[in-house]
């Protein structure tokens, strides 16, 4: 994806917690004044903020743009129509319906932002990896372990042998049994979980193909996997980034599963028939 095609606002929200104080100052300015930003020179923005032009320029580079103009082009493409910030901070005195509305709207934006930063070529490669895998294993710890189980639950239907592990010992043990014909999917919002990175190291030592689902940005996980698929979410007082990212992680897995299912339509018929027959025994 070229710099000109990158999305600006989702990237700011995704990286916000890692910014320095001066970077947060620039980020807050852009988020609050996107329309003003695209009509301002770098000198005007620096003057408004009381910072050096170099600070604004470095912020653009930090987001992955070649410079200020490239960032403005990306920003302009996002605000052809007036932006409504659908995320509102939850207040202690909000009633139940208001809290529910804000949570739903925050989830919607997480999905929209994640969809914007999804790299098409990386996604296609991930589908191809899964499609030709002898075996697929999903690894995640804590909340990401629940996502790994959901992925396993879905991919059982494809007829491709799969498994999910959320125990760190099982992860390294199982990874040691995989081969270059297999695929291991590592799910971690932070991308810094030590146990998961150890399992990744074991998998790579056996030439296993690896996919990571993690927050946007350079993390130990995204740098080490063969393919990184990114989620974007924003932290609030009552909701951590990791919590908000779950729906984005689930949606990426859903999209991978549906793509694999379409390509394995004939093979899945027998698998689904056997599964439905077995499940029917559980019903009255």
Automatic annotation (TrEMBL):
It comes from the Bacteria. Residues 126-266 form the SIS domain. GO terms for biological process: carbohydrate derivative metabolic process. Keywords: DNA-binding, Transcription, Transcription regulation. Gene3D superfamilies: Glucose-6-phosphate isomerase like protein, domain 1, Winged helix-like DNA-binding domain superfamily/Winged helix DNA-binding domain. PROSITE patterns: HTH_RPIR, SIS. InterPro entries: Homeodomain-like_sf (IPR009057), HTH_RpiR (IPR000281), RpiR-like (IPR047640), RpiR-like_SIS (IPR035472), SIS_dom (IPR001347), SIS_dom_sf (IPR046348), WH-like_DNA-bd_sf (IPR036388). This is RpiR family transcriptional regulator.
